[in-house]
Prior knowledge:
- By secondary structure, the protein is mainly α.
- It has 8 helices and no strands.
- It has helices at residues 4-7, 11-30, 34-48, 54-79, 84-90, 92-108, 113-122, 126-144.
- Helix 4 packs antiparallel against helix 6 (92-108), helix 5 packs antiparallel against helix 8 and helix 6 crosses helix 8 (126-144).
- The protein starts with a helix and ends with a helix.
Amino acid sequence: MPTLPEQVADADKRRKVIDDACTVLDEEVASKGGLTGIAIKGAYKVVQGVKPGFVREAVDGLLDDFLTAIDPIYQEAVEKKRPVGSYINDNAARVADALLAVTDRKAERAKRAVIKSAYEKLRPMAKKQVEAACPRVGALVERHAAA
């Protein structure tokens, strides 16, 4: 089975995945409530305000690393003949750890202080939030990956 990064090598396919990922991100942020939701929405507004198109640029820049990070879980789902979306959701802790390892590395090298600061403030609650996003992440992967 081709890897997830191999499956989005085509420029048109990549653009569609990025479009979908940005929509998923917007929906996930919008769905947050309570004090945590206020913090997440505030940080997201800060990140969106860095420059026009920054979120899309960030998604594009992280996409290959994210796909590589969760590819082993995707490959397991395919091997076990399980629906990819539900398998990702069933393995939410592993998915969160894999994705957060990517963002932790990126945040360490961030040049913009506002981005680094926003990430550091939200990182302690990040695993729980990424795990909660796994149904949407799984659905996104399922929509764009070969089964």
